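LAB NOTEBOOK - FOLDING QUEUE
OPERATOR: T.R.
BATCH SIZE: 2
PURPOSE: Compare the predicted structure-token outputs for two unrelated chains run back to back under identical settings.
PRIORITY: normal
REVIEWER: second-year student, initials M.K.

ITEM 1
FIELD SEQUENCE / FIELD STRUCTURE:
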Amino acid sequence: MKIKPNIRKTFIALSLLIVVSFTIPAYAADGNHETDNNTTVINYDDIEDLVLENNLRLKSNKYSLDDMEDALDDLEEARDEIREMQREIYSLSGSITAPEGPEGSIANATKASLNVAGGSLGMSLPSTRDVREQIQLAELNFAYSEKQLVSASKELFLLYHQINDSLIQIERNSQLLESKIGKAKISYEYGYVLSSTLDDLESSLKELNNKYDTILHQKDLLLLNFKNLIGVKSSEDIELGNIPELSREFISQIDFESDIKEAIKNSMSIGIRKKELKNADASGKRINNEVKIRKNEIEVELKNQYQLLIQQDNILLLAENNLNILENKLTKGHVQFNVGNITKSNLDSLINEVENQKSKIEIDESNLFKEIEKYKAMVAGMI
């Protein structure tokens, strides 16, 4: 077997492929669950398994790891063949007996040449240590890319629902505005409304419709990206299940100091950095210093995420309080409408405000759920 001189470069190239390739979109693969009407329902808890089983980029990374393992096997086979050649050379050298006279000098020179050749072969034995270390580093990066793709897919799931809520809000606002325009046109015919007022209302409706179309396009693109990540064909009909129930009790149960220790212990970035430094033959002092730096960074990052979580919880509390205020106004509005103090249009506006606030709360709940999930993932090692 010929030993390729660039085999180590091949291993490094494969390692780098695994490190960076998870950022490239992965396109559809088979493997999903269909309902009776041929529509696949994707629930939040299904996402991790779907990504790990079907994502084509992860499969490609796995094939790269397999190629590296195969190359390592070839390298070890080459080492065995070289050792066998060494044994044969030394055996031949040992079997040579130097006679008296000129022939003895030739025999001794031959033995010396054979011994040199055997020694040279020993020096040319390719080391598998560097290759094994490259594979181990690639495996760490591969595991990290798996976690990142799962996290990204879950965020797209949540964002899809938020976009839906925004579209519902725009639809309600458009319907209310269309109703106002209809009444304004009647008033305009009788001279109660200026043409400029009617023009402003119609312009506002066009802006809303344009905004709706833009967001709808974003929703379609998001769904396509989500399908790619979970390995579903772009042509397949899917339906995203509901967002899991929000557990706000988790916030009050957070033990931040304990979570910092757990995050540092589980940190995948620390494991990757330590392996990179060891592969580069860094000193123990440098490795320890780099780890300390990363530990400090992790504490700051987790603290920031905790603050985001608390901030989002406060936003949700404020939204819920505003909903109570709007619902009280609506209750009074119904009474005022029944006694003729406000118009149907005024009442419809109050109803629309309440419904829009409910949609805002759904979005805020989704954001809080996302921040909690991210905090949990960081503690579990995604940091």
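ITEM 2
FIELD SEQUENCE / FIELD STRUCTURE:
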Amino acid sequence: MKQLVRIFILPSSPLFNLDKLKPFENFSPIFSSMLYTTSYSNLIEVFSNPGYDLGVYPLLHFYDDGLIEDEFIPTDIISNLKLVDSERLNISKLFHGLDFQNNISIFTFSDTIGYNKQTIYKMVELLKNEDDVLVMARNNNGSITHFGMNGRPIYFFSISEMSDLDSALKSELALNRFIYLLEGINPIRTFSDFKELYRLLSIKENFYFCSLEIHKQFNNLFIEFKEMLK
């Protein structure tokens, strides 16, 4: 039987609630929301591409309840949307109707960019394992950009603890699992990351990072902060 691969998009912060969101470095709440929603929308677009053959499950912070923009979540996956507490999350309870035991779950942080098929399926190959496995992709400073596991993700975890390698290794999700590490992609968590995003999106070879429409939305932010990007 073919294993199903599901992608769960984890919110780095509330996206729409300007009073509750975590302001991005040097950004006002409004510009922070623009950055967060653009990054999140980009992941939905990328992973919803039929060529990926993935189930997409968008998660948003419960502080955004009632504030989510119309059509932010496409109608074909709107039934997969869940509002969550980012500090106490149990995926198998949240989606109790899904069969996790024989399938693969990959978790991507909404403040990341640069996924392609190879990125995802490099992780999938490691998770096609009879043993219980946790695979984490991290960059040079130990920041995790995505992680995955096979079997049931039965434990509670916080999104913040799983975004850092040291704390993730101590988390309940790592208990009794073989651990594999991969090279991560590009986080958007600091203003330095934002400057790197500006550089990366100016390179033609990185066209797969996002669509033209998403690129325009990022470009609007680059224009607002052009003096700081020099």
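REVIEWER COMMENT (ITEM 2): The two ends are 53 Å apart (CA to CA).
FOLLOW-UP: none requested
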